[in-house]
């Protein structure tokens, strides 16, 4: 059997002191599918060079700018240049960098949200279409094995017609004015120029929305929303409440907040049909609870019996060995690698093609715009215009 070489990854952003860049690097490295070989990690020259040194990169491939990285890597022979770019910058750079990377012939793995607005999302979609390259979006929670198990059970009709979808994402880290006190992570996330139309809405509300549609298979048709900013002086929302109507008649509620003092990363999804429902929480990710109308509740565990083939493809350890956020993220990177290489023939069954991408990005930006528009109007219900 021929040896499969790791794909080559370049990264923009994620320099010394950044959170999500390190997460991407860990996730990309878990399965051996990727090797980080190049980067433009920071506009601060010292931070950029130090990051490259810490990561053991050839200093010639630690670039002063994103544009310099694209130009230099494109000039290399095909077997030496990067295969994909990981974009881990603040939101305002997602669209221009994604489009430039795609047009230069590189695949893209981008942090969410996709862009600042729906118009930019459509521009990225057009770039992906004309380039023929793959575009992946880091909606990490869809990579959890038990999220896939939940999706598979809904899709095969275990619960009957879906009636209720409830999703919440509760954090407390922005309960005080960290953004006004020099916290870099808080500062850009509450700056409309860098974060976009929504604060909490764009940062974690998009995760909740994507997860609800991904698992339920239902599409939001209209919504009624309320955006609140609790911390005085903050320029974007820190609390979101949305009533949801789905195209097939289901009803739902989405709650996202970053001012629930004391909460950590309380992402929870409940989906109910006519026969029963499911309950999954990100802080206990290896357990999926099933509740039934006519029999006792069940607790389904990662690695246990009776799981879908696609669920098993996202597990790495036997039952009882916890897998979490980094492994879920790694599932996304593995799916992108398998898809680039040609699908499941070179990966575990079900590993390729499932990852969130252009369609998810456009949907979430349509959701963000609809929530903002509805919350600022006197209209009770608003549709999603893609």
UniProtKB/TrEMBL annotation:
Source organism superkingdom: Bacteria
Protein name: Oxidoreductase
Gfo/Idh/MocA-like oxidoreductase N-terminal domain sequence ranges: 8-137
Residue ranges of every copy of the GFO/IDH/MocA-like oxidoreductase domain listed in the record: 148-278
GO molecular function, one term: nucleotide binding
InterPro entries: Gfo/Idh/MocA-like_OxRdtase_N, Gfo/Idh/MocA_oxidoreduct, GFO_IDH_MocA-like_dom, NAD(P)-bd_dom_sf
């Amino acid at each position: 059997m021929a040896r499969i070489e790791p794909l080559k990854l370049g990264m923009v952003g994620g320099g010394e002191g950044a959170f999500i860049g390190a997460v991407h690097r860990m996730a990309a490295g878990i399965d051996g599918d990727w090797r980080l070989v190049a980067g433009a990690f920071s506009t601060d020259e010292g931070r950029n060079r130090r990051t490259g040194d810490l990561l053991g990169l050839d200093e010639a491939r630690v670039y002063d700018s994103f544009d310099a990285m694209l130009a230099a890597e494109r000039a290399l022979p095909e077997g030496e240049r990067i295969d994909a770019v990981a974009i881990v910058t603040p939101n305002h750079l997602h669209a221009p960098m994604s489009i430039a990377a795609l047009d230069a012939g590189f695949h893209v793995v981008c942090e969410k949200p996709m862009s600042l607005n729906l118009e930019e999302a459509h521009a990225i979609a057009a770039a992906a279409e004309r380039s023929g390259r793959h575009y992946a979006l880091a909606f990490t929670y869809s990579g959890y094995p038990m999220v896939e198990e939940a999706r598979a059970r809904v899709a095969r009709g275990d619960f009957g017609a879906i009636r209720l979808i409830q999703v919440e994402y509760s954090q407390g880290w922005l309960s005080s004015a960290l953004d006004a006190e020099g916290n870099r992570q808080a500062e850009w996330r509450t700056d409309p120029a860098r974060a976009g139309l929504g604060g909490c809405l764009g940062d974690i509300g998009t995760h909740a929305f994507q997860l609800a549609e991904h698992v339920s298979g239902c599409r939001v048709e209209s919504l009624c929303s309320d955006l609140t900013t609790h911390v005085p002086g903050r320029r974007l929302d820190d609390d979101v409440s949305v009533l949801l109507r789905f195209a097939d008649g289901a009803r739902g509620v989405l709650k996202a907040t970053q001012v629930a003092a004391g909460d950590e990363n309380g992402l929870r999804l409940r989906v109910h049909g006519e026969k029963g429902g499911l309950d999954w929480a990100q802080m206990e990710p290896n357990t999926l609870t099933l509740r039934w109308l006519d029999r006792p509740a069940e607790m389904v565990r990662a690695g246990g019996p009776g799981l879908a083939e696609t669920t098993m493809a996202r597990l790495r350890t036997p039952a009882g060995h916890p897998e979490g956020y980094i492994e879920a993220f790694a599932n996304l990177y593995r799916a992108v690698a398998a898809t680039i290489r040609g699908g499941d023939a070179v990966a575990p069954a079900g590993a390729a093609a499932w990852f969130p991408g252009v369609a998810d990005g456009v949907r979430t930006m349509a959701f963000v715009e609809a929530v903002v528009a509805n919350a600022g109007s006197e209209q009770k219900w608003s549709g999603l215009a893609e």
